[in-house]
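Quick illustration for those who missed Monday's session on complexes.
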Amino acid sequence: MFEGGNTVVHKDDETGNDSIRHDSVQAFDAVKATLKSDIGDTAFRSWVAPLEARAFAAGTLSIDVPTRFIRDWVRTHYGDRIAKLCAMHISGCTRVEYNVAAGAQKPAATPAAQPYEPVTTANENAAGDAVQLSSALDPRFTFDNFIVAASNELAFAAAKKLASGENVTFNPLFLQGGVGLGKTHLMQAIAHDVAARAPEKRVVYMSAEKFMYQFVRALRSRDTMAFKEYVRGVDILMIDDIQFICGKESTAQEFFHTFNALMDQGKQVVLSADKAPGDLEGLDDRLRSRLGMGLVAGIQNTSYELRMEILRAKCKLMKRELPADVLAFLAEKITSNVRELEGALNRLIAHTELVGRALTLAGAEELLQDLLRASCRRIIIEDIQRHVADHYNLRMTDILSPRRARPVARPRQVAMYLSKALTEHSLPEIGRKFGGRDHTTIIHGVRKIEELLLSDRQLAADVETLKRRIAG
Ligand code: ADP
Ligand code: MG
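Prediction with adenosine-5'-diphosphate bound:
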């Protein structure tokens, strides 16, 4: 098989004594070499190396492609470029056609060099270089270590039920939530639980990126049948963060066809993403609705109480103690996600151990300065609008409305000014959040307030108060 070198003729060119055809085949190698430097080694090896020029007649170069999937991908991503290069390198070439080579995927023709080792949760260290299908699990990500609150109880209950082996009526289970809110934790908890309860079950957990990597690798070794067979042989397939494979067109389609096939066989599928199925881009509508047909369990942002409980639980797990006011300070300030909260806690604990002295609130504040500043940056415009509305005794709708009366217009401009000053949003983005106003209106508002701040003491005081309130 052609392996990306500069070898000229393919070895199974048994009928190839036609010199035109031979030349075109050689020329196609030049095309490939140019593409290789264009698109890089990795993409080249996955997609272009397997292409083989087969014949050239009547201005058409026929290229053999091992699979339909590669053909579609190459056509969409590199089709134009290949056509242009062929026109340049092969005289008289006006058209390129791709044929899926018959038998290219026949297991007999290409015996699977490495059988897909069933790397299940119970068998994390498969010997040799067998394909690793499951990712290693974090031993801390168990149901016992997961703190349940209103924001995550549906996801927790669904995961637990699924792991229990009872019949569940939903498929797939779709965990949806922002970064660091426990999606991976819950998926891995399912894997741990099943491994302990029913070790004969084949559970595969992996990130979408890894899944894609394995899939592309299988394509490259022309082993997709074995890959699909393997994946279809699992009892529970869990793919984490599928937003990473959506939008990669044919890859995504291919993955989701595999999911579909699994679901048709009644195999359990668990997926996670930072968006709801309906908001995932780059999927066709049928797949999107299929993904949403099971149970979509959202994980919402944490409450203060949940953050406090998680901190206490973490301390207990690590057998460490921190003063209550320090924990409360963390729970109050680090609201964006649990991962950052844990990061902050770990940093404080590590510091305490190093200096061997009890931590004070002021000490904690200082140690976490950078993190706290980072969460400040995440002030959202809606919060600013709400604070401004409250301060001036208006309603949110007043801030967003088109009304131009001064008692409404001025506070609205204050909100625009603060949005510009306290967030990273662009003027057009801010405009959209202010009832779809034009960015020039926002500039005008911001300038107006900047100007007034120089002379209007009351306004300056209002702005200061608001800034403090918004920063929490
Ligand atoms: P995601 O996959 O949603 O981005 P993770 O599952 O990786 O988030 O969670 C990030 C960190 O926060 C992990 O260390 C996890 O254990 C912890 N975590 C999240 N939610 C909880 C919870 N409810 N109870 C305990 N730990 C949690
Ligand atoms: Mg995750």
